[in-house]
Amino acid sequence: MATGAEPGAVDARPRPLPALAEVVRTVAVLRGPGGCPWDGEQTHASLVRYLVEECFELVEAIESGDPEAMLEELGDVLYQVLFHADLASATPGAGFDVDDVARRLNAKLVSRHPHVFGDREASSAEEVVAFWDDLKAAEKPHRTSILDGVPMGMPALALADKVLGKAAKADVHVEPAAVPATEEALGAELLALVSGAREAGLDPERALRAAIRGVTEAVRAAEGATPPVE
Prior knowledge:
Layout: H1 18-31, H2 37-41, H3 44-64, H4 67-89, H5 98-111, H6 114-117, H7 125-139, H8 156-169, H9 183-200, H10 204-223
């Protein structure tokens, strides 16, 4: 079917999404009167463990390269979003539903991409990354540190990578160690470090988190902020 778009271009025109509307209704039925007792008892807090599990299962599906597994796990993650949104719609004081979630997301996507929806220019991913921090700072003026908004509950390795990237912007650097040339070799070396830590009775997760705290304190000191009390 002809769309009028240039060859190879993405047709960005809206299209009906009946299945999405149907699953929103299904979640509402499950949580509504006469629905599933388990669903009806859940809270935002009680659902956290399932959200974390589903995200990790999606990561595993992506890494496996299995499209069918990805399809299923993306659905499970979507279910978590719809569940939380429906729960919020029925919670006094929350005042939002899935449409509000989508509206807020769309507004963020448009504001974070002025090179697509506005008059700013960016011809490479590097240029986009370079001005994202400025956009975020304008959107969230209450943040006083480049570390604000970093989820400190992330797994230690992912958190270390995130914090080091932020720290470099505050001119706080950690001397890099020599690393192997491939990710396969790097993975083996990291695994060997964990094995050595186990043999020595050390907790590598806790050790890395302690080192990260040192970096965050150095960043906040460089920014002139007082390290938060834990």
